[in-house]
C-alpha cells in the first residue's frame, strides 16, 4: 500500500512539474477572408464563406484534382456494375470525426441524402436514385433507376453546397434548418467557443484526421495540417487589411483589390498571386415585383456593358475578360448564342413594354467584396434608364442573410444583389449555381422555368460531348429569354501573402492544408 501511495505521489509530482513547463509554441496562420461567417451549414447555403468553412472542417467522398478529374478522397475503392446502375463505395480505414467516433457508411448515407435535397447536382442524382444504403459499416451501395453519367461529378463536385460527410446525428437535421454542430470529418476543427462573429473565427488542427498518402493535387490528395491553428480575422476595410499584411500582423489577404497590387510591388516580404476565376452575377429577385416581369429582366441584360462593369473593379486585362455567355469562357460548353449587345435604347424600350411604374428597386451591396464596384456601375445604369434605385450598402454577412428573404421590399426584402460564383459553379448547366430554374429549390432569386429544367435533365442523360454542347446552347438561348441573372464579366481574384509561407495551394478555393510558416 505504501508502495502504491509512493507511486501515486511521484506521478502527481511529475504532472505538476510538466504543467510548470512552458507550453510548446503554437503555429498560427492568420488570414483575412473576404467576408464573415454567419452560419455553419454548407448544405443549406451557397455562401462562399460557409463553403470555405466546410473545406476546413469536413472531407468528401471524392474531390477534384488540378486537372478537373474526380479522385477518391474518403473512399478507398469503388466499383460499378456492367449495366452502370449499381455503384459500390468502400471507405478508407481510420476515418474519424472530430469527436473521435468512426466515420461509417450510415453517416455517409445520411449526409448524402440531406445534401441531395438542396444542391442542384444532388437533386439530379437523387432523382435518378432507386436506393442508397449502408450495406456494412464501411460500404455504401447506390442503385440507380437508369444509367446516369454524372455520379462521380456529383459526389466530387467542388465549390458551393458540397456533399460533405458529417455525423448521421447531425445530418438528421432537416435540410431547411441550419446545423449548429460543426463536428466534422476534415483536417481542422472549429474552436466554437472562440468564434466571434464580426471579429474572428478560429480553427485547430484535428488530431483525429487521417490524410491520404498522396501529395495534394487541386482539392484532392493529402490534406495535411501543417499549422496548429488557423485564425480568420474579419476586416471589412481593405486598407486595414493591407496595413496588417504589410506589418506582418496577418499572413494572407484574400481577395486583395487589384488597385492595391502596386502598393506592395516593391515589398520583398509580400507576394501576390491569382486566387480564383469568377463570373460576376447580377441576381434579380423573381419572387417579387418588379423583376417577376421577364421584360424588365431582359432590359437589364441589355443595359449591362460588361467591359464597363468589370473595369470598375480591375483595369488589368490579364485579370479580366468580357464573356458574352452564361458559361465561363474557358468552359467546353461556352457559347455566345443569342447574346444581345449592350443597347440602352433597346433596354429603355423593354422597360416601357414591361409596364414598369416606378416601383422601388432595392439593390443590396456588400461593400467589402469584389462585386461592389460592379454593383455601383449597374445601379447607375439602371438610374440612367429611369429605374427607381434604392441602393443599400452593407457587409457580406448581412447581405447573405438578407438575400434569403422573399418579403416585399418595404418589409425587409430585396430586388437585386451581386455575387461572384467561382468557375466550378458556372461551367456546365447541371451544377451551374445561377442557371438553375427549379423555382423554390433554385438559388436566391428563385427563377422558375420548366423548359430550362427539362433541358438540364436531358443534359445529364446525353451520351456524348457534342450532344451536351447542343443542349447547353439551347439552355443559353432559353435563358436569354427568361434571364435568371445577368453576367457582369469574368475576372480573377488575387491574394496577397507573406513570401515566407510555403506550400500554399491555389485550387480556386481558399484552402489552408499543406501550408507551412517559417519560424
Per-chain topology:
Layout: H1 2-20, E1 28-32, H2 48-57, E2 62-64, E3 70-72, E4 75-80, E5 86-91, H3 105-115, H4 120-127, E6 129-136, E7 139-144, H5 151-155, H6 168-171, E8 188-190, E9 200-205, E10 229-233, H7 238-246, E11 252-253, H8 261-264, E12 270-284, H9 294-303, H10 306-310, E13 320-321, H11 344-354, E14 360-366, H12 372-384, E15 388-394, H13 396-402, E16 416-419, H14 450-461, H15 465-482, E17 485-498
Parallel strand pairs: 1-10, 1-11, 14-15, 14-16
Antiparallel strand pairs: 2-3, 4-5, 5-7, 6-7, 8-9, 9-10, 11-17, 12-16, 12-17, 13-17
Task: Tell me what you see in this structure.
With 519 residues, the protein is of the alpha+beta class. 28% of the residues lie in helices and 20% in strands. It has 15 helices and 17 strands. It has helices spanning 2-20, 48-57, 105-115, 120-127, 151-155, 168-171, 238-246, 261-264, 294-303, 306-310, 344-354, 372-384, 396-402, 450-461, 465-482; strands at 28-32, 62-64, 70-72, 75-80, 86-91, 129-136, 139-144, 188-190, 200-205, 229-233, 252-253, 270-284, 320-321, 360-366, 388-394, 416-419, 485-498. Strands 1, 8, 9, 10, 11, 12, 13, 14, 15, 16 and 17 form an eleven-stranded mixed β-sheet that branches. A four-stranded antiparallel β-sheet has the order 4-5-7-6. A two-stranded antiparallel ribbon has the order 2-3. β4 (75-80) and β5 form a beta hairpin. It is globular. The protein starts with a helix and ends in a 21-residue tail after the last strand. Mean pLDDT is 92; it is low at 1-23.
Amino acid at each position: 500500500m505504501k508502495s502504491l501511495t509512493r507511486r501515486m505521489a511521484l506521478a502527481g509530482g511529475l504532472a505538476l512539474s510538466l504543467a510548470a513547463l512552458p507550453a510548446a509554441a503554437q503555429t498560427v496562420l492568420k488570414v483575412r477572408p473576404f467576408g464573415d461567417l454567419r452560419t455553419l451549414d454548407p448544405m443549406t447555403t451557397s455562401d462562399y464563406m460557409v463553403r470555405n468553412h466546410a473545406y476546413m472542417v469536413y472531407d468528401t467522398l471524392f474531390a477534384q484534382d488540378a486537372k478537373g478529374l474526380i479522385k477518391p478522397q474518403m473512399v478507398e475503392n469503388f466499383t460499378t456494375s456492367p449495366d452502370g446502375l449499381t455503384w459500390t463505395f468502400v471507405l478508407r480505414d481510420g476515418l474519424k470525426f472530430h469527436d473521435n467516433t468512426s466515420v461509417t457508411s450510415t453517416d455517409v448515407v445520411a449526409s448524402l441524402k440531406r445534401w441531395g435535397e438542396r444542391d442542384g447536382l444532388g437533386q439530379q442524382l437523387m432523382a435518378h436514385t432507386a436506393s442508397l444504403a449502408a450495406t456494412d459499416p464501411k460500404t455504401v451501395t447506390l442503385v440507380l433507376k437508369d444509367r446516369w453519367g454524372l455520379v462521380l461529378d456529383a459526389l466530387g463536385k467542388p465549390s458551393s453546397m458540397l456533399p460533405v460527410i458529417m455525423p448521421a446525428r447531425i445530418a438528421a437535421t432537416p435540410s431547411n434548418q441550419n446545423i449548429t454542430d460543426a463536428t466534422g470529418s476534415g483536417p481542422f476543427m472549429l474552436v466554437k467557443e472562440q468564434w466571434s462573429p464580426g471579429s474572428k473565427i478560429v480553427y485547430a488542427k484535428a488530431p483525429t484526421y487521417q490524410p491520404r498518402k498522396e501529395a495534394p493535387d487541386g482539392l484532392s490528395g493529402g490534406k495535411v495540417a501543417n499549422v496548429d491553428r488557423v485564425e480568420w480575422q474579419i476586416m471589412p476595410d481593405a486598407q486595414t487589411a493591407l496595413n496588417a499584411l504589410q506589418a506582418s500582423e496577418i499572413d494572407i489577404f484574400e481577395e486583395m483589390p487589384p488597385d492595391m497590387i502596386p502598393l506592395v510591388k516593391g515589398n520583398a516580404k509580400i507576394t501576390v498571386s491569382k486566387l480564383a476565376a469568377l463570373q460576376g452575377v447580377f441576381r434579380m429577385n423573381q419572387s417579387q415585383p418588379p423583376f417577376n416581369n421577364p421584360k424588365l429582366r431582359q432590359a437589364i441584360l441589355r443595359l449591362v456593358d460588361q467591359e464597363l462593369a468589370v473595369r470598375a473593379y480591375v483595369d488589368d486585362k490579364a485579370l479580366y475578360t468580357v464573356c458574352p455567355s452564361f458559361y465561363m469562357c474557358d468552359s467546353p460548353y461556352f457559347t455566345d448564342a443569342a447574346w444581345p449587345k449592350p443597347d440602352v435604347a433597346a433596354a429603355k424600350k423593354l422597360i416601357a413594354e414591361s409596364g414598369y411604374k416606378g416601383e422601388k428597386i432595392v439593390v443590396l451591396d456588400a461593400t467589402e467584396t469584389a462585386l461592389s464596384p460592379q454593383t455601383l456601375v449597374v445601379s447607375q445604369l439602371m438610374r440612367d434608364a429611369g429605374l427607381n434605385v434604392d441602393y443599400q450598402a452593407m457587409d457580406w454577412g448581412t447581405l447573405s442573410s438578407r438575400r434569403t428573404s422573399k418579403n416585399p421590399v418595404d418589409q425587409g426584402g430585396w430586388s437585386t444583389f451581386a455575387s461572384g460564383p467561382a468557375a466550378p459553379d458556372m461551367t456546365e448547366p447541371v451544377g451551374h449555381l445561377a442557371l438553375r430554374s427549379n423555382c423554390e429549390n433554385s438559388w436566391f432569386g428563385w427563377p422558375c422555368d420548366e423548359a430550362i429544367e427539362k433541358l438540364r435533365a436531358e443534359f445529364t442523360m446525353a451520351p456524348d460531348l457534342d450532344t451536351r454542347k447542343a443542349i447547353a446552347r439551347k439552355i443559353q438561348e432559353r435563358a436569354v429569354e427568361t434571364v435568371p441573372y445577368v453576367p457582369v464579366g469574368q475576372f480573377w481574384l488575387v491574394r496577397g501573402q507573406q513570401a515566407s509561407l510555403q506550400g500554399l495551394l491555389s485550387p480556386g478555393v481558399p484552402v489552408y492544408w499543406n501550408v507551412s510558416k517559417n519560424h
